[in-house]
Each structure stands twice: as structure tokens, then as C-alpha cells.
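TICKET: design request
STATUS: open
ATTACHED STRUCTURE:
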């Protein structure tokens, strides 16, 4: 019998677990605490948890049945059908704990997640992967991330084959869940016992948990747990994200959380004024279910009552009204000069989402904020109830990523052969025209079709078509160039999906009008060029006094914007459009 278990790690530093050191006592505390919180009538005794030892790992098993509940179908069906029928349902659930040295892991079945979720390390899977990752070799299938910049609150991206971790634009994003294939090296080293053939790349899922994406036996699960002991000895890489989680609860509780309350307290004075008067900028979203929050039809706002229950005080249909509605209610109850009760009240407000008349998700009001604070002149980020700081290696990461792209995704060296001497050719257009009469090249520069300049130079051989965009210098001008490439790639893909390919018709017509050389191709032959393998090329020079190779002298080029734009464009192109290659034009 096989299962495909997710493996979680218990956070033994949790405030309710710190005083316990024996694994059985910790497990009993977790289960008994959750039973009480969830209102389970079941009782548990410490000696009722079965255990076995295997190779210095102790396994503990807890089984339980969830309370009898009525199926949703009971309310759906008319009484004429449902009256007198038994709609009760019960489900068997289990938690399998494994204690290895100082670590306590667990896997679950049924509805057991609600038991362990308050006590798990919510970054465990990602942290494990950070210890074994090979960015230039690991193949990325999909990734779910949180956006810290731009208009996207959350992103769920899927990728074609051969899209690697190195291609993923991590800046401004916090990974939450990743599906990927490990490199051959790591697959062999850590999970060789799972391989069906020597060159098989093991597929994994990482997030809050770590999961091998295939069915395993108990013996294989045991070997995975055993392997975790070795992996945990490896120092984690900083590569996956530019942000580092802050886990010191004392600092969070004494310094960071009060700052959030202060921002809300001060902002309450601006309720009813124009948005431009606000001083607190934030993104408001459910921390666990971005899609469900954004897709909800209505939101019921509840406040804590004196008897410990909850009472509805408002219902809104626009998520953008939640913040003002809650703060307005707080001011109504306590005025503008009672910070303590302001804080206590907000801690008891819940936001419950409904879609099609059914409850979907519910969470505390204060859990919904994503924002940035400046603390001691350092940026601190609050994202989905977690706190992060920008890694010291941010600029170093930009350099490394840009270097990888320049070295790995090079265009063939003969894609552009003419040097660019700025003394004689001051304008980019003058350089592009050097290729006007060369066989295999068509100059597209200044050819505007349907409002688009497709590229500067087309170059083709027997199997490939290169759309080359040219820019002098590796500087902030790269922002303009990469934007042009992304627009061009999108429009080209859309146009090639049409029967007439009108964009290509217009380009050919304008080539004829301008008198540019196009190798004597007729219209059909020109359009057939786009049946070849299409790649975009970003071609640039060094703008420094010395003609240095950018990839070997990254520290000499001081534009972080150029590096960031190159990384972002490369990742987006590979994910959505065509390969993006790079080429440095020598100046002499």
C-alpha cells in the first residue's frame, strides 16, 4: 500500500510547547490543545498514543473520528426528499508523528490538518528546498508567490519544460508553494532510493510542507525522514527570495505589531476623507486564500461580544470597503483617544467571505495586511502575518542573476558581427543600417506597423529566426529596451495565431516602401521566416570608457535597474513568449 504524504515540521519553539522536552508530552499538548479549541468532545490520554522505534526514529500514531456532521446536501434538497433521512457523516483522521533527534515531523490523513496547523513551521518545505536547490538545474513546473511590489497581490504561475529556477524573477515576490523537478545530482544524492532509473529527476512540492510527488511505502517514507537529518545539516541558500523571515517573537510582539496598531490608530482620523489624504499604504487580502478573497461576493464583518461569541455589525459587497467600515465602527465605539481599546477591539474583528451565498473563508481583520515599514531606517515587510527584512545580499543577488542570464542564454556569436565605434556611429539607427545589405539580415528599425516596431534587426539561418533589439550601453536605458521586447513578443505571438498574419503583411509592405534590402524574398517567403524557431535577442554594448565584458565585470556597471530589468524580462519571456538570448556588441 502506498500514500503520497505531505511532511510537516512541528515548531517546538511555539509558546505553548517551549516547556516540554519529551516528544510524547509535546504531541499530547498539541492534540489536547487543538481538541479544546475546536470544541471536540473526544478525550485523549497520553498513553493512548501508540509508538514504535525504527533506526533511531520514534513514530507516534494518533487516530480520531471527526464529529458527526450533516452533509451539505441536507440543506440543498427540499424537505419532501430530505425529511427522515440520515445525512450524518463521519471521517477517520490520523496524525503520524516522527521524532528524530531534536526534530518532530508529522504527516496527516483525513481532517487532521486543523489539529496541527497552529503548531507547524509554516516555511518548512521552502526552507528544506533552500538547502538542496540548484538554481541553474532545477526545473520549475509552477510557483505560487506573494507580490510585494506592483499591482499583483498574488501570482500563480505555470511554466513550460526546461524553465529553471534561475529564470524565475524573485525580486518583489515571496514564494509560498513550488512544484519542481530536482537536478539529477540532488535526486541521486538524497532520493536515489526512490528512483526507478538512474537519470530520473525526483519531483517535489514544497511550501508549508515537503512532499515527494509520487506514492511511497512506509519504508520509503522512513527513508525520507531519515534523509531529512542529513539535509538539515546543510546551510540554506539565500537564492530563492530576496527577503528573510524574522522569527524572533519578542521583537515582533514588542516592536513590529505595535507599529501596525499605531498606523491604523493614526489613520482612523482620516476616515471619510479622500484617499489622497491617507498616510498608510497597504494591501488588504486574506492571508491564506487570495483567490477566494478576491472572488467573494460579500463580506460579513463580526465583532467579539462580551460573552466570548461574535456578532455581525456590517455586511459589505466591495472588499475595498472593509477597511473603512471596520475603522469607522471602532471610532464609533471608542472615539479617537483610546488606543488600548482600539487595539483590543481590532484584535477581535473577523472578516468572513461568502460566494454564491456560501461561507468560503474567515480570518482576523489584523491578519489581512501586507505593507512596508521603515524601522531604524531599514525596510521591514509584513506579508500574510509574517515579517520579513530585505536580505543584505539583495544587490549581490541581482549581480548573480544577471551574470547567469548573460552567460547561459547567449546568442550565437555570429548573430551580430559588426563592432560599434561610437566615434563614427553615434546613433543606434546608424549601427543597425550596417546590416542592411548583408545576406540573412533584414533591418526593421523605424518600420512601424500597427503602432509597433517589431525589432531593430531580423537575422535568420536555416532553422532559426532572431529578432534583435539593439541598445548602446548597459544602463537605465535597459528599462525602455526590455519593455519594447515584451510588447513586441506579445503582439507577435498574438498575430502569428491569426490566419492572415496582418502584422507581417504591413511590415513587408513598409520594407518595400523604404527600399530596404530583404534578400529578394517575396511576401510568402518573408512570412515563412516566422515558421522557424523564434528567439528574441537583447543586444547591447558596454558604455564604460573601457570596452569591458559586462558578464565578467558586473561590479563596474552600477545600474541596478539594468540588472533588474534584464532578469525580469528574461523570466517573463521564457514563461510566456519566446526564448530571450543576450549578445554584447564589441565596440572595436
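STATUS: resolved
RESOLUTION: sequence designed for all positions
ATTACHED SEQUENCE:
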Amino acid at each position: 500500500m502506498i500514500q503520497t504524504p505531505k511532511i510537516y515540521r512541528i515548531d517546538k519553539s511555539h509558546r505553548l510547547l517551549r516547556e516540554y522536552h519529551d516528544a510524547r508530552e509535546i504531541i499530547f499538548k498539541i492534540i489536547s490543545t487543538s481538541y479544546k479549541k475546536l470544541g471536540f468532545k473526544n478525550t485523549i490520554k497520553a498513553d493512548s498514543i501508540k509508538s514504535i522505534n525504527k533506526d533511531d526514529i520514534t513514530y507516534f500514531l494518533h487516530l480520531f473520528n471527526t464529529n458527526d456532521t450533516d452533509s451539505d446536501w441536507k440543506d440543498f434538497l427540499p424537505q419532501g426528499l430530505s425529511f427522515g433521512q440520515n445525512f450524518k457523516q463521519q471521517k477517520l483522521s490520523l496524525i503520524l508523528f516522527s521524532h528524530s533527534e531534536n526534530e518532530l515531523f508529522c504527516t496527516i490523513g483525513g481532517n487532521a490538518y486543523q489539529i496541527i496547523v497552529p503548531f507547524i513551521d509554516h516555511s518548512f518545505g521552502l526552507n528544506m528546498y533552500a538547502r538542496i536547490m540548484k538554481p541553474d538545474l532545477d526545473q520549475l513546473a509552477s510557483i505560487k508567490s506573494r507580490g510585494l511590489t506592483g499591482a499583483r497581490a498574488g501570482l500563480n504561475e505555470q511554466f513550460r519544460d526546461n524553465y529553471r529556477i534561475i529564470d524565475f524573477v524573485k525580486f518583489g515576490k515571496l514564494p509560498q508553494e513550488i512544484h519542481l523537478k530536482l537536478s539529477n545530482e540532488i535526486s541521486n544524492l538524497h532520493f536515489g532510493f526512490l528512483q526507478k532509473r538512474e537519470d530520473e529527476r525526483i519531483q517535489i512540492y514544497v511550501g508549508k510542507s515537503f512532499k515527494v510527488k509520487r506514492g511511497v511505502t512506509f519504508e520509503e517514507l522512513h527513508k525520507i525522514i531519515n534523509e531529512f537529518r542529513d539535509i538539515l545539516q546543510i546551510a540554506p541558500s539565500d537564492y530563492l527570495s530576496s527577503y528573510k523571515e524574522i522569527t524572533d517573537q519578542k521583537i515582533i510582539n514588542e516592536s513590529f505589531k505595535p507599529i501596525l496598531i499605531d498606523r491604523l490608530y493614526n489613520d482612523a482620523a482620516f476616515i471619510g476623507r479622500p484617499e489622497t489624504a491617507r498616510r498608510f499604504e497597504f494591501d488588504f487580502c486574506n492571508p491564506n486564500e487570495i483567490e477566494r478573497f478576491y472572488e467573494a461576493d460579500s463580506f460579513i464583518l463580526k465583532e467579539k461580544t462580551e460573552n466570548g461569541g461574535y456578532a455581525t455589525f456590517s455586511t459589505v459587497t466591495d472588499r475595498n470597503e472593509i477597511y473603512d467600515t471596520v475603522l469607522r465602527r471602532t471610532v464609533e465605539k471608542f472615539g479617537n483617544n483610546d488606543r488600548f481599546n482600539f487595539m483590543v477591539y481590532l484584535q477581535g474583528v473577523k472578516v468572513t467571505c461568502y460566494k454564491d451565498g456560501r461561507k468560503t473563508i474567515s480570518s482576523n481583520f489584523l491578519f489581512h495586511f501586507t505593507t512596508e515599514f521603515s524601522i531604524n531606517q531599514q525596510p521591514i515587510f509584513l506579508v500574510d502575518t509574517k515579517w520579513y527584512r530585505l536580505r543584505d545580499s539583495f544587490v549581490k543577488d541581482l549581480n548573480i542573476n544577471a551574470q547567469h542570464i548573460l552567460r547561459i542564454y547567449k546568442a550565437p556569436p555570429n548573430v551580430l558581427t559588426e563592432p560599434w565605434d561610437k566615434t563614427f556611429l553615434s546613433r543606434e539607427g546608424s549601427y543597425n543600417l550596417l546590416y542592411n545589405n548583408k545576406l540573412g539580415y533584414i533591418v526593421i528599425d523605424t518600420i512601424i506597423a500597427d503602432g509597433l516596431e517589431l525589432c531593430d534587426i531580423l537575422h535568420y539561418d536555416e532553422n532559426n529566426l532572431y529578432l534583435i533589439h539593439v541598445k548602446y550601453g548597459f544602463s537605465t536605458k535597459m528599462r525602455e529596451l526590455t519593455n519594447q521586447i515584451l510588447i513586441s513578443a506579445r503582439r507577435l505571438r498574438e498575430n502569428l495565431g491569426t490566419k492572415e498574419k496582418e502584422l507581417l503583411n504591413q511590415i513587408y509592405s513598409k520594407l518595400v516602401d523604404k527600399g530596404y534590402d530583404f534578400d529578394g524574398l517575396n511576401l510568402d517567403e518573408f512570412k515563412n521566416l516566422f515558421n522557424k524557431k523564434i528567439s528574441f535577442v537583447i543586444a547591447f554594448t558596454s558604455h564604460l570608457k573601457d570596452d569591458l565584458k559586462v558578464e565578467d565585470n558586473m561590479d563596474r556597471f552600477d545600474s541596478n535597474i539594468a540588472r533588474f530589468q534584464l532578469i525580469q524580462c528574461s523570466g517573463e519571456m521564457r514563461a510566456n513568449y519566446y526564448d530571450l538570448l543576450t549578445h554584447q556588441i564589441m565596440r572595436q
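CLOSING REMARK: The chain has three domains: 8-243, 249-390, 396-584. The chain has 17 helices and 26 strands.
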